[in-house]
Design a protein that fits this description.
heterotrimer; A alpha/beta (about 260); B mainly alpha (about 375); C mainly alpha (about 290); B: about 375 residues; mainly alpha; ABC transporter involved in vitamin B12 uptake, BtuC; two-stranded antiparallel ribbon; 15 helices; about 70% helix; globular; C: about 290 residues; two-stranded antiparallel sheet; 2 strands; about 5% strand
Chain lengths: ~260, ~375, ~290
C-alpha cells in the first residue's frame, strides 16, 4: 500500500495501483472550470482543484459556498460542466455507480445510511462492485477497527447514533477499496468530541490504506489539522489554496476566510 | 431604461390585438351554430354524447385540475346522475329537466360523502379508492336490480299521449320549433346547458373561491395558515364536481333513453379523466377540447379503421397518454399556451430596440414563465 | 358448518392468488414508490402468452415458465419506456396515475389486437380434481395455488435475504441515492423489479383464467382484490401481501354468501377494507408508518 500519507502535495510517487492511467501531470483527480447548479440557479462558477494519490485535501467554505455541490458534481450526482479527470479518464457525465467501479466513493452529506438494512448489510453493499472473496474478511476488519459497529452488526443501521452512522458510512464507502474518497461534512450534526474521534479514525485509515480523501468541511480548524492541502471556496469560486500549515499560520487569512 | 420601452409596447391595445382575441370565439360560435345543419342526424347525436362527456370532464377538472384531488371514479358519479334521472322520470313521473336538477342535487350529496374520507386520503391512494368505487359501481347497479333494472337495463319512460291515450312510452326530446329536427333541437339544448356550465365554472375559478381552490392544491399548509378553510373547500369542491358530472349523466340518460350497467364501467371514468388531461387540466376550456378530441378520435377516426384493428385505438390512446405526460403535461391547452408564450416573446424582443434587460450580469433566478 | 368451511377454503384458495398479485404490487411500490394500476393488465397480457405457448403444444408448466419470462420482458420494458421518464410519484401523482392508466389502456388494447376479443379457455394447472379435507371437498387447483404461493414466498425470501442481488434491490428500495453511491446500477435494478412483478402476476393470471375464461377483462376486478390485500398488509410489506391476500380472499368469499346485500358485489368487502384501512390505519398491518412531508 502507499506510503504517501504525510501530505506531500503533488508527488506522484509511483504507487502501482494509482499510477495506472494517471494523467500526464500525475494527478489522481483533476477538476477544471467545474460549473454546476440546480435548475436555473448556478452555484459553481469554474472550480479548479487537484488531488494526488494518497493525499488528504480539504475544501473549506461557509454555508452555501457550494462545497456539497462540488462533490456532487464530481461524483455525478448532479449535472455539471467543465472537466473532471479521474485516473486519466474523463468522467464528467457518468452516473455515481459507474464511478464507484473506477475507484471513487462518495459519502454524502447526512451519511446516507440505508436505514432498512442492518449494519453488516450496509457494509456488504459497500462492496457491491467487488467480485473477490475478501469481502467477508474486510467486514471483519471493520468490526475490529470499530467495535461499536461490530456490536450492532445485526441491528438496523438507522437505529445508531450520528457518530456511529458516520463511521459506518465511511467504512461502507471504503469497502469498495476506492482510490479516492469524497467525504461531505463529516462533522455535521456531531458533537465536537465525536467529530474529533471521526477525524482521528479517518487519519488512521487514510494512512494505512493509502486512500486519497477529498473532504469538504465547515469546521476549518479540525479539517486543517487533518488535511495536507486546502482550498477555500466562496460563492462558487476557489479564492485560496495552499498547504494547511501555511493557512493555519496566516492570521489574516484565518480571519477573512475561516471565520476565526 | 429599456424596461419602459417594453411595457409601453405591450400596453398599447391596437384594434388588431383586440380583433385577434375575439375572432376565435366568433368563429367558434358560428361553427357551433351551423354544425347540426351540416351533418347527418347520427353524427349530431354523437356530438350530443360528446357534450355530456364535456360536462363531466368540466366537473372533474374542477376537482383534479384546480383542486388537486385525483379521481378515477367520476364515471360512477356520471352514472349516479344518469340512473337518478332515469328512475325519477320512470317511477316518479318527474318532468325531464327537473330530473336533471334532482340528479345534480343527489350527486352533490354523493360528492360530499366521498369528499369526507378524501380529506384524509390523498394522491395515489385517493386514486386507488376512486378506482375501486368505479370498478364496484356496475356491480352495485346489478345488486340493486329491483330499482335499477340490473343488467337487463332501465328503460326510461314517461306518460305520453299516444293514439288518444296516456301511455308509458320511452322518452323523446321532441323539438317544439318548426324548422328544427329532434336531434338538432336536442343539440342546441345540450349546447346551451354545456355553455352555461362552462361559463359558471369559469366564473367560479376566476373568483376568490376559485383562487382558494388552487391555493389548497398548491400548498395545503400555507393555505390553511392564510385563513382558508381547507377541509370545507375540499369537500365542497368534491360536491360541486360530482354535481356537474351528475348533470352530464342526466343529459346522457335523456339522450339515450335507456341505461345499462355496462355503460358505466371503469373505462368511462378513465375516458373522462383522459378528456381532462388531454384537453389540459387546470384550464377552463380544456375539458371541452379534450371531450371533442376524444369524441373525434373514437367515433370518427377509429371508425374509419378496419374492424380488425379497432382495438388499436386503446393502444394509441395509451401511448398518447404516456407521451403526453412526458412531453406536454399541460395537454392541448398547455401546449398552445407554451407556443403562445414563445411567439409573444419573439414579438416583444423584435420590438425591443434598446439593450436587453437580462444580460450576463444578471444574478439570481429569473421569474419562471 | 360444512358449507361455511367449504366457502372459507375456496376463499383461502382465491386469497393465494390475490397474494401473488399483491407480491408484485409490493415489489413495485417498494422500489419505485407507486401504485401500479396496470399490474392486472400486465398479468393478463403475459397470461395470454402462456396460453399461446400452450396452444402451440408446450406442456402447461413449461408454457407458464415461458409466459413468466415473456411477462418479465414486458414489465422491464414498461418500466424503461413509461415509468422511468415520468419522475417521482410523490411529486407528480397525477402524471404517474395517467401513465399507469395509459399502460392499462395500451396493454389491454394490445392484447385485444393480438388475441382478439373472444374468451379463450385455459386448463387449470392442477387439473379439475378434488380432494376431501375435513369432510369438505376442495379443488386441487386451490391447494395448488397455496402451494405455489408458498414456493414463491420462499424464493422471494431467498432472493432478498440471501443473495447479493436481493440485497441490492432492498438497498434501492430503501435509499436509492445511497445505493447509487455504493455502485449499484439503480435504473437496471428498478427495471428488474418491474420484470419480477410482472412475472409474479403471470402466475396469478394462470390461476384465475381457468375459472373466468381468458379474456382481456380478466384482471379488472381481481386487481382491486390485490390492492385490498396490500392495503391491509401494508403497501411496502411482502409478508403483509400474503396475510392480506388470505384475509381478503376469505372475507370476499364468506361475506357475499352470508350477507345478502353483498351477494352480487363480491368486491364490496374489499372496497370497504381499503377505505377503512386508509382512513384509520394507513400503514396497514405490517407496513411502516409514513411520515408526511410538510
Amino acid at each position: 500500500m502507499s506510503s504517501a500519507g504525510d501530505g506531500v502535495s503533488s508527488a506522484s510517487d509511483g504507487v502501482s495501483s494509482a499510477s495506472d492511467g494517471v494523467s500526464s501531470a500525475g494527478h489522481l483527480l483533476e477538476v477544471k472550470t467545474l460549473g454546476a447548479g440546480y435548475g436555473i440557479v448556478e452555484v459553481l462558477f469554474g472550480v479548479d482543484l487537484v488531488v494526488d494519490p494518497g493525499e488528504v485535501v480539504v475544501v473549506l467554505g461557509a454555508n452555501g459556498a457550494g462545497k456539497t455541490t462540488t462533490l456532487r458534481a464530481i461524483s455525478g450526482m448532479i449535472a455539471a460542466t467543465g472537466q473532471v479527470t479521474f485516473l486519466g479518464e474523463s468522467v464528467l457525465g457518468r452516473r455515481p455507480d459507474q464511478l464507484v467501479k473506477r475507484g471513487m466513493a462518495h459519502v454524502p452529506q447526512g451519511r446516507g445510511t440505508v436505514t432498512a438494512l442492518t449494519v453488516e448489510e450496509n457494509l456488504r453493499i459497500g462492496a457491491y462492485v467487488r467480485s473477490d472473496d475478501q469481502v467477508d474478511s474486510d467486514i471483519q476488519q471493520w468490526f475490529e477497527a470499530f467495535p461499536r459497529l461490530g456490536e450492532r452488526k445485526d441491528q438496523l443501521a438507522g437505529s445508531m447514533s450520528g457518530g456511529e452512522q458516520q463511521m459506518l458510512a465511511i467504512a461502507r464507502a471504503l469497502m469498495s477499496r476506492p482510490k479516492l474518497l469524497l467525504l461531505d461534512e463529516p462533522s455535521l450534526g456531531l458533537a465536537p468530541l465525536v467529530t474529533h474521534e471521526v477525524f482521528e479514525r479517518l487519519r488512521e485509515i487514510s494512512v494505512s490504506t493509502g486512500t486519497a480523501v477529498l473532504l469538504v468541511e465547515q469546521n476549518a480548524n479540525l479539517a486543517l489539522e487533518f488535511a495536507a492541502r486546502a482550498y477555500v471556496l466562496e460563492a462558487g469560486r476557489i479564492v485560496l489554496s495552499g498547504n494547511s500549515a501555511d493557512l493555519q499560520g496566516d492570521a489574516a487569512i484565518q480571519k477573512a476566510y475561516l471565520g476565526v | 431604461m429599456s424596461a419602459t420601452v417594453t411595457t409601453g409596447a405591450s400596453s398599447r391595445r391596437s384594434p388588431s390585438d383586440w380583433a385577434l382575441k375575439v375572432a376565435p370565439w366568433v368563429l367558434l360560435f358560428v361553427i357551433l351554430a351551423i354544425v347540426p345543419f351540416q351533418f347527418p342526424s347520427f353524427r349530431v347525436e354523437q356530438i350530443c354524447f360528446w357534450m355530456t362527456l364535456a360536462i363531466a370532464a368540466c366537473g372533474l377538472n374542477l376537482l383534479t385540475g384546480y383542486n388537486g384531488q385525483i379521481s378515477v371514479g367520476h364515471g360512477a358519479l356520471f352514472g349516479i346522475g344518469a340512473y337518478t334521472t332515469g328512475i325519477l322520470i320512470t317511477e316518479f313521473g318527474v318532468p325531464l329537466f327537473g330530473a336533471t336538477v334532482a340528479s345534480a342535487v343527489v350527486c352533490f350529496a354523493a360528492g360530499i360523502l366521498i369528499g369526507l374520507p378524501a380529506l384524509r386520503i390523498k394522491g395515489l391512494y385517493l386514486a386507488l379508492v376512486t378506482l375501486a368505487v368505479a370498478t364496484l359501481f356496475p356491480l352495485f347497479l346489478e345488486q340493486f336490480s329491483a330499482i335499477t333494472g340490473g343488467s337487463g337495463g332501465l328503460q326510461i319512460t314517461s306518460p305520453q299521449l299516444y293514439r288518444g291515450e296516456m301511455r308509458e312510452r320511452p322518452i323523446r326530446l321532441e323539438s317544439p320549433v318548426a324548422g328544427l329536427e329532434n336531434d338538432q333541437w336536442k343539440y342546441f339544448v345540450f349546447l346551451g346547458i354545456t355553455v352555461v356550465i362552462f361559463i359558471l365554472s369559469r366564473n367560479l375559478i376566476k373568483s376568490r373561491v376559485g383562487r382558494s381552490l388552487v391555493a389548497v392544491r398548491d400548498n395545503e399548509v400555507a393555505a390553511e395558515s392564510s385563513g382558508i378553510p381547507v377541509s370545507q373547500v375540499k369537500i365542497v369542491t368534491f360536491g360541486l364536481s360530482a354535481a356537474i358530472a351528475g348533470i352530464g349523466g342526466s343529459l346522457f340518460a335523456l339522450d339515450q333513453g335507456q341505461l345499462y350497467p355496462s355503460s358505466f364501467t371503469i373505462v368511462l371514468s378513465i375516458y373522462i379523466l383522459v378528456a381532462v388531461v388531454v384537453g389540459g387540466a387546470a384550464s377552463i376550456i380544456g375539458p371541452a377540447i379534450g371531450a371533442v378530441f376524444y369524441g373525434l378520435f373514437s367515433d370518427v377516426i377509429v371508425q374509419q379503421m378496419p374492424d380488425r384493428i379497432q382495438p388499436a385505438r386503446a393502444v394509441i390512446l395509451g401511448v398518447l397518454l404516456i407521451l403526453l405526460m412526458l412531453l406536454a403535461p399541460g395537454g392541448i391547452v398547455g401546449g398552445f399556451r407554451t407556443l403562445q408564450a414563445k411567439w409573444s416573446a419573439r414579438r416583444s424582443s423584435a420590438h425591443n430596440s434598446g439593450p436587453s434587460v437580462t444580460g450576463p450580469s444578471a444574478t439570481g433566478p429569473e421569474a419562471t414563465a | 358448518m360444512r358449507d361455511f368451511l367449504q366457502i372459507l377454503l375456496v376463499g383461502i384458495g382465491d386469497g393465494a392468488v390475490y397474494a401473488m398479485l399483491g407480491l408484485g404490487l409490493v415489489v413495485i411500490y417498494r422500489s419505485t414508490g407507486l401504485l401500479n394500476f396496470a399490474q392486472g393488465e400486465m398479468a393478463m397480457f403475459s397470461t395470454f402468452i402462456v396460453w399461446t405457448m400452450w396452444s402451440l403444444g408446450l406442456p402447461m408448466w413449461l408454457a407458464v415458465l415461458g409466459g413468466m419470462a415473456g411477462g418479465f420482458c414486458v414489465g422491464a420494458l414498461v418500466h424503461q419506456v413509461a415509468v422511468r421518464p415520468v419522475g417521482d410519484p410523490h411529486e407528480k401523482p397525477l402524471a404517474v396515475v395517467i401513465v399507469t392508466i395509459g399502460l392499462f389502456l395500451g396493454l389491454n388494447g394490445a392484447a385485444q389486437l393480438i388475441w382478439g376479443t373472444l374468451d379463450r379457455s385455459m386448463p387449470p394447472l392442477f387439473g379439475r380434481g378434488q380432494v376431501t379435507v375435513f369432510g369438505v371437498a376442495v379443488a386441487w387447483q386451490k391447494i395448488g395455488a397455496v402451494i405455489v404461493l408458498g414456493v414463491m414466498v420462499l424464493l422471494f425470501y431467498l432472493l432478498f435475504q440471501h443473495t447479493k442481488l436481493g440485497l441490492a434491490m432492498r438497498a434501492v428500495a430503501s435509499n436509492s441515492e445511497s445505493a447509487s453511491l455504493v455502485g449499484i446500477p439503480v435504473p437496471r435494478l428498478l427495471m428488474l423489479g418491474w420484470g419480477l412483478a410482472a412475472a409474479v402476476g403471470t402466475v396469478a393470471g394462470v390461476f384465475i383464467a381457468p375459472n373466468l375464461g381468458l379474456g382481456t377483462n380478466l384482471m379488472q376486478l381481481t386487481l382491486i382484490f390485490g390492492f385490498a390485500a396490500i392495503t391491509l398488509g401494508g403497501f411496502d410489506s411482502l409478508v403483509g401481501a400474503v396475510v392480506g391476500g388470505f384475509v381478503v380472499g376469505a372475507l370476499s368469499s364468506v361475506m357475499p354468501r352470508y350477507i345478502t346485500i353483498f351477494e352480487k358485489m363480491p368486491l364490496a368487502p374489499a372496497f370497504i377494507l381499503i377505505l377503512a384501512v386508509l382512513l384509520f390505519r394507513p400503514e396497514g398491518l405490517f407496513g411502516k408508518k409514513q411520515v408526511t412531508r410538510v
